[in-house]
Amino acid sequence: MILDQMPTLKINEIFHSIQGESSYAGAPTVFIRTSGCHLRCNYCDTTYAYQEGQQLELAQILETVKKFGSPYICVTGGEPLLQKQVLSLMTTLCDEGFFVSLETSGSLSCADVDSRVKLVIDVKTPDSGSAETFELENLSLKNRDIEWKFVLCSEKDLEWSENFCRQHVIFEKFMVLYSPSYRKIDPQWLAEKILQKKSPARLHLQLHKYIWSSETRGV
Ligand code: SF4
Fold first, then answer.
1. 190 confidence band (pLDDT: 50, 70, 90)
2. What are the C-alpha distances in Å from 120 to residues 59, 70, 207?
3. DSSP-derived 3-state class of residue 165
4. What is the CA 141 to chain-centroid distance, rounded?
5. Directed axis angle between helix 155-167 and helix 187-197, to 10°?
6. CA neighbours closer than 13 Å in the CB half-sphere of residue 172
7. 130 C-alpha vs ligand 1 centroid, how far in Å?
8. Residue 182 to residue 207: CA distance in whole angstroms
9. What are the residue ranges of helices labelled H in the chain?
10. Could you tell me the distance, in angstroms and rounded to a whole number, from the CA of residue 141 to the centre of ligand 1?
11. Is 166 helix (H, G, I), strand (E, B) or coil?
């Protein structure tokens, strides 16, 4: 397919920064933030991406990301999978030799995502404000590089996440990240709980929030 003939994607922003989440936290990364989200998490720090954005052709997106000279690309949102064209974008990025990760809420099927893409699935907990939105089909993904993330807003969320991972045999197969909701949950409290419970989950702090605010992120 000729890139110029490809459909467009609504993109909120493309920027170069330090990855704050997943096992690649700390890595210089180019972020492609798509516009639009059908969820409304109460801790959402990207509400500006619900509507704002501009339609860009894949060729324009590729040209922009290449300028940053980083091998790592994170496709995030919003919810990227709301736009089907994002599937072509990720495949093209992989074909171009980039290492690509996708941050998704897991509320839409990931089955058609290029198998070279690392999936970071942010399962919504009961107190997230977007409970019971998980697409169970995503538990059946085979031979995928997946990291499961849970942003915890309460002890109830912690219990729910533990049960979810044990019920679906996630701890045994994948990396699990427990992230304390920023300024709602004390990281030390969560660290102690993980140890008390002998949970295999990793304590996961959103690194970018400790480095800079969205206003100073810069590119
Ligand atoms: S899924 Fe992400 S972008 Fe959508 S409301 Fe929740 S935190 Fe915000």
1. very high
2. 25, 19, 16
3. helix
4. 17
5. 40
6. 4
7. 9
8. 11
9. 58-68, 85-95, 155-167, 187-197, 207-211
10. 22
11. helix
Residue 79 CB–ligand 1 contact under 6 Å? yes
Pairing of strands 118-123, 146-152: parallel
Statement: residue 145 has pLDDT above 80: yes
Pocket probe for ligand 1: among 39, 47, 179, the residue whose CB has the most ligand atoms within 8 Å is 39
Residue pair 162/199 in contact by the 8 Å Cβ criterion: yes
Rounded CA separation 20/34 (Å): 18
Instruction: Please indicate whether residue 147, judged by its CB atom, sits closer than 6 Å to ligand 1.
Output: no
How many angstroms separate the CA atoms of 166 and 172, rounded? 9
pLDDT band at 196 (very low <50, low <70, confident <90, very high): very high
The dotted CATH code for 3-134+141-211 is: 3.20.20.70
- Residue in this structure with the two tokens 């912690």, named with its chain if needed: 158
Considering just the CA atoms, what is the radius of gyration of the chain in Å? Answer: 17
Is the distance from the beta carbon of residue 206 to the nearest atom of ligand 1 less than 6 Å? no
**Beta-bridge mates of residue 18:** 28
CA-nearest residue for atom 6, ligand 1, is 41
215 CB neighbour count, 10 Å cutoff: 6
pTM of the predicted model as reported, rounded to 2 decimal places: 0.93
Q: What own/partner pairs with CB < 8 Å and gap ≥ 24 does 190-194 have?
A: 190/152, 190/158, 193/155, 193/158
